Amino acid sequence: MSFRTTAMSTDYVEDVSPGRGALPPRAWYASSDAGSLSLNGSWRFRLSPTADGADDSFAEPGYDAGDWAEVTVPGHWVLQGDGAFGAPIYTNVRYPFPVDPPRVPTQNPTGDHLHVFDLPSDWPGLSDGGAVLRFDGVESCARVWLNGTDIGEFKGSRLAHEFAVGDLLKAGGNVLAVRVHQWSAGSYLEDQDQWWLPGIFRDVTLLHRPAASVLDFFVHSSYDHTTGEGTLRVESDVEGRVTVPELDIDVRTGDPVTVAVEPWTAETPRLYDGVLVTAGERVPLRIGFRTVELADGLIKVNGKAILFKGVNRHEWHPERGRALDLETMRADVLLMKRHNVNAVRTSHYPPHPAFLDLCDEYGLWVIDECDLETHGFTEQNWRDNPVDDDRWTPALLDRASRMVERDKNHPSVVIWSLGNEAGTGRGLTAMAKWIHSRDTSRLVHYEGDWDCRDTDMYSRMYADHAETERIGQGLDGGTHKRRQLPFILCEYGHAMGNGPGGIADYQRIFEAHDRVQGGFIWEWIDHGIKDERFGYAYGGDFGEELHDGNFVCDGLVFPDRTPSPGLVEYKKVIEPVRIEGDGRDGTVRVTNAYDFADLSALTFVWSYDVDGTAVETGTLAVPATLAPGASADVKLPQPPVDARGGAESLWTVRALLAEESAWGPEGHQVAWGQFPASARPTPTVAASAAPVLADGVITLGPGTFDARTGALRSIGGREVRDLRLDVWRAPTDNDDGAAWQPDERYGMLWRNLGLHRMQHRLDAVESGEDSLTVRTRVAPAAAEVGLNTVYRWTSDGDRLKLTVSVDPEGHWTLPLPRLGVRLGLPAADRVTWFGGGPGEGYPDTKSASMLGRWESTVNDLQTPYLRPQENGARADVRWAEIGGLRVDGDPEFWFTARRWTSEQLDAADHLTDLTPGDTVWVNLDHGQQGIGSQSCGPGTLPQYLLRVQPAEFSVALSAVDN
Ligand code: IPT
After folding, report:
1. Does ligand 1 lie within 6 Å of residue 191's CB atom?
2. What are phi and psi of 425, to 5 degrees?
3. Would the CB of 324 count as within 6 Å of ligand 1?
4. How buried is residue 445: exposed, middle or buried, by Cβ count under 10 Å (0-12/13-18/19+)?
5. With CB atoms 3.0 to 4.6 Å apart as the test, which of 94, 165, 204, 836 could cross-link to 876 if both were Cys?
6. Smallest Cα–Cα separation from 52: which of 86, 13, 7?
C-alpha cells in the first residue's frame, strides 16, 4: 500500500514571490487625525520546529492559547524566553543552511503569534472607511490571519507590509494570528553580515482609513541655489490641498509653487511644517527643500559638491536586537551629530522609518539601502545568484519599491542603494531602472557594480589608500561611464576591536581630490548580545555550528552605545573646522570645512597651557561669516610672560557650540587644534651616585637591584617587579587581519616567530663608577633573530635613570608589536600623566589624543573591546605617576597599565575571562606598531610599522606620593 500524507501547505515559504494579499507600497506617515491603534505588546507565542509543525487552527476565533508562552512584540523570539525559544546565529557571508535556492531546511523554527484586541471606544464606526493592518518588519516570512480569515503572507523582513482589513474588524475580541518562519526563500535575499534573528521585530499597527483619506503621496521639494527659491509639488493619489503657513503656501495637490526658502542640508536641516489635506484626512508634512544631482562628475546638493563623513549603521540593541525604540534611534543620531558624522548608510536594509524622521530633523545625509544581500553565493562563484535569475526579479522589484515608496518623502535620503554584496545581474539592473524612473530626484548607489552600469557613482569598500588616491586622480581606469562618475567608499575603516587605524590618512586623500566624496566607516555599533556568561556574546557563543566569531563586533560604539576610541578619533579626523598653527608665529589658521554652514554657530576659545595646565584662557575672534572652504589667519594674544622658559608650553584652540543646538549643549566641543609655543625641556639626571654592593643587593641612588641578575627590586622603598624589555602585545583584530587579506597578517606572523614567548638571556651585570649595566639577549626559541638589550642605570641620588639600548641581530623580516619595558607594581590605582589623552592612541589612531595633564585609574584606562586585545595606550606621554612611581620619558613614551599581563589579555576570549591579579603591569613603550584596518581593510601603512632597528630610549624613575 502506498499513501501520501498532505501536511498543511507551506509552499509559500519557499516561493520566490514576495507574497500575496498585501496592499501596494506607499509613503509611511503618521496621520494627524485618522485613528490608529498600536498592537505592540505582549502576544501569545508558540514555537514549532518546522514550518508545518502545527496546524493553523490557532488562527480561528475561540482558540484557547491559554497555555502558550508570551513574547513581546516588537521583538525576536530567540532573544526572549531565556533560551527556551532557540538562539541567535551569527554568520557573515555564509548561509547557515544548505544553498539550494529557494529551498530551506525542514528544520525551520516557526513562531505562531496570537494577539486579541478590542477597538478603542472612540474608534470610528466600522462602516466609516476602512482599516489597514501594518507590519513594519517581520523576519523572514509571515502568514497573517485576522478573525479567522487568511489575509496573506509576505517576505522582505525590513520593509513595511500593509493589508486592508476594514471588512474583518469587529468592536471587540479581534483575533490577529501571525505565523512567522525563520527561513524562507526571502532568506536567500537577506544574507547581511549580522545575527539571524526571527520575529515580529518592528511595530504592528492598525490604521483607520477614513473615506477619502490620503493613500499615497510624493513630496517634491527642490531648491534652486541660483535663485534661492524652492519649488514644492505634492503628488497625491487622492486630491487635496497642501498648505505651508510659514511660506504662505496653499495649493492644490499636483500644482507646483515656487517661493523663496531656506534650503535643507545635513548641516542646516531647515524643515517647514505643512499639511496635506484631503476630504478625509490631514497629514503633517515636514518639508525640506533640496536638490540632489550629478553635475560635473560630482554628487551635488543645492549646487555644491558634498563630502560624506559617514558611518554604516545597522540597527542594534544589546538586549532587543533589531527591535529599536525611538529613544535608542535618537541616541544614535545625537551621538553621530556630536561626533561630527554627517552621513549614514543604512546598511544593509531600510531602517525603522522613525530613524529617517530623525535624520530629517537633526540633519544627516542618508544612503537608504534596500533589504538585499546574497553574499553567500560568492562561495559558489555566484552560481544561481537570485539577482541574476529572472524568477526572482519580482521579489527584487518588490523590495525596491517598498523601500522607495515608504521613504520617498524624506529630505535626508539623497541616495538609494540597491543593496549590498549581491554580485551583479539583471535583477539589480531592473531595480535600478525602476528606481530611476520612479524618482528622478535622487541618485542610485550599488557597490557591487564596478562598471557603474546601473549606478550614478563609483562605489567601493575597503579600497586601500593608494588605490583611493589613484581613483581621486582619475588614474584608476574602468569603463567610460565609471570614469565620469564621482567616487565614494561606502565602507572603509573597519572598526573591529582596537582601531580603525589610518583614517586620518584617508581623510587627507578625500579632501585632496574632488572626485572622492568621502566614505562611511564600517560600522556604527558592535552587535554584542548582553549575556550573563560573557558580558556580551558574539558569534559562536550560542553553539552555532557555523559562525564568524567576533566579526559582528566591529563598531565605533560598544553595544551599550559608549563611544569607543575609534569614534573619538573619527570625530577629530572629520571635524568641520580645521585649526592649525605654529604658535611661535603668533597666528592660527582656521578653515571652515563645512560644505554649507558658516561658523556662526561656534565660538572659539584659546588656552595657553604650561606643562599641560592652562595658565590663561580667552576667546578668539574668528569671523563668523567665514565661508565653507575659506580660511582665516587669526592673531593669537601675546603669550603670558611669566609662563615662558623652563617649561613646555602650547596653545590649544577649541571651536565650541556658541549656544545649545538641537543636538548638543552650549559649549560642546566641535573641533580643536594644538600647537607648540615652546619645546619640552628634556629631563636630565646627572649620573652622580655610585652603585654600592651589600648582602647581594646593589643600591644605586633610590634603587635597589639583585646583584646576581641585575634586576630592579625597588625604588625609594617601593617594590618594582620584573622590569624588562617587552615586545609583545595581545594581537588586535586588525593585527590578526582577515583570512582573505593580501597584506601581511602580523598577528599570526608574530606568533609564528614566537614574539609572545621571548626568552631573556642574562649576559652580564656590570657595576661601574656611576652606573650599573645589565647586558641581555632577548630572543624567541627556535629562531636566530634576537635583540641585544642593554639596561644602563644611573642616578643623581633622587632619581634613577634607565637607558635601554636595543641592537637587533639576525635577519628580521617582521616589525615588532611594541618596543619598550614592562614592569610590575604591587599596588596602583590612580594614574596621572602629562601627554596625550584622555583616551587611547596608537601611531595611526592618535589624532584625537590631546596633550594635557590627565587623571584616571588603572581600571578606567582599559578599553573594553568585546574580544580582549591590546588597548589603552596613552600616546606622547612626557611623564606619568602611578603606584608611587613617577616616570619621566626621554623621549616621550606610550603608557599602558593594567591588572593583567599582555599574555592573559591575549588568552582571553571575553572580558569576563579577565580577572585582576595582585600586580599592576605597566608598559613604557618607545614604539608601538600602528593599528591599520586589516580585519577587513588595508593593513598598517608603512610609515606606522615598527620596524626592527637599533633603538635607544630612557626613562627617569622616582618615588612619589600619588
Ligand atoms: C563587507 C560587508 O559589506 C559588510 O556587511 C561587512 O560584512 C563588512 O564587510 C565586514 O564587517 S564585505 C567584506 C567581505 C569586504
Report:
1. no
2. 170, 170
3. no
4. buried
5. 836
6. 7
pLDDT of residue 744: 85
Question: Domain 702-959, what architecture?
Answer: Distorted Sandwich (2.70)
- Nearest-CA residue for ligand 1 atom 5 is 193
Per-residue pLDDT reduced to its tens digit, 689-712: 999 999 999 999 999 999 999 999
Q: Give the closest residue (by CA) to ligand 1 atom 10.
A: 936
CB 108 less than 6 A from any atom of ligand 1: no
- Phi then psi dihedrals of residue 571, to 5 deg: -55, -45
Rounded distance from Cα 461 to ligand 1 centre (Å): 8
Query: Of 153, 162, 267, 421, which one is the catalytic site residue?
Result: 421
DSSP E strand stretches across 319-394: 343-345, 365-369
Nearest C-alpha neighbor of 849 from the set 834, 829, 864: 834
Omega of the bond leading into 348 within 30 degrees of 0 (cis): yes
Task: Assess contact for 516 and 509: CB atoms under 8 A.
Answer: yes
* pLDDT-wise least confident of 216-225, 232-241, 397-406, 681-690: 681-690
Domain 11-209 of CATH type 2.60.120.460? no
Distance (Å) from CA 506 to ligand 1 centroid: 19
- Among the listed residues 871, 830, 832, the one whose alpha carbon sits nearest the alpha carbon of residue 854: 832
Instruction: Report DSSP state, residue 525.
Output: B
C-beta separation of 567 from 944 below 8 A: no
CA 543 to CA 89: how far, in whole Å?
A: 9
Is domain 305-572 given the CATH code 3.40.50.2300 in the classification? no
pTM above the 0.90 mark? Answer: yes
Sequence ranges of the domains in the chain: 11-209, 217-293, 305-572, 575-678, 702-959
Angle at 831 between CA 826 and CA 832, to 5 degrees: 140
Pairing label, strands 365-369, 343-345: parallel
Atom from ligand 1 closest to the CA of residue 461: 15
Q: Are 614 and 608 in contact (CB under 8 A)?
A: yes
369 counts as catalytic: no
Instruction: Please give the number of the atom of ligand 1 that sits closest to the Cα of 462.
Output: 15
Q: 215: Cβ–Cβ under 8 A, 6 or more apart, which residues?
A: 26, 236, 237, 238
Q: Assess whether the C-beta atom of 522 lies below 6 angstroms from ligand 1.
A: yes
Q: How far apart are CA 618 and CA 608, in angstroms?
A: 9
- Would you give the distance in Å from CA 536 to the centre of its chain? 17
Mean pLDDT of the chain: 96
Phi, psi of 509 (to 5 degrees): -70, -45
- Active-site choice (491, 840, 881, 892): 491
Protein residue with its CA nearest to atom 12 in ligand 1: 421
Rounded CA-CA distance 413/304 in Å is 17
- Can 217-293 and 575-678 be said to share one CATH topology? yes
Residue nearest to atom 4 of ligand 1 (CA): 193
Determine whether the shortest distance from the Cβ of 936 to ligand 1 is under 6 A.
Answer: yes
CATH 3.20.20.140 corresponds to the domain 217-293: no
- Alpha carbon dihedral 708, 710, 715, 718, in 10-degree steps, equals -60
User: What is the fold, at CATH topology level, of the domain defined by 575-678?
Assistant: Immunoglobulin-like (2.60.40)
749 alpha carbon – ligand 1 mean position (Å): 24
Q: Classify strands 272-278 and 281-287 as parallel, antiparallel or unpaired.
A: antiparallel
CB 959 within 8 A of CB 716: yes
C-alpha cell at 112: 505562531
Mutate to test the pocket of ligand 1, among 372, 421, 459 (most ligand atoms within 8 A of CB): 421
476 Cβ inside 6 Å of ligand 1: no
Q: Is the Cβ atom of 420 under 6 angstroms away from ligand 1?
A: yes
Do 874 and 924 meet the contact criterion of CB atoms below 8 Å apart? no
Does residue 39 line the site of ligand 1, with CB under 6 A? no
What single DSSP character describes residue 269?
B
pLDDT tens figures, 221-259: 999 999 999 999 999 999 999 999 999 999 999 999 999
pLDDT band at 124 (very low <50, low <70, confident <90, very high): confident
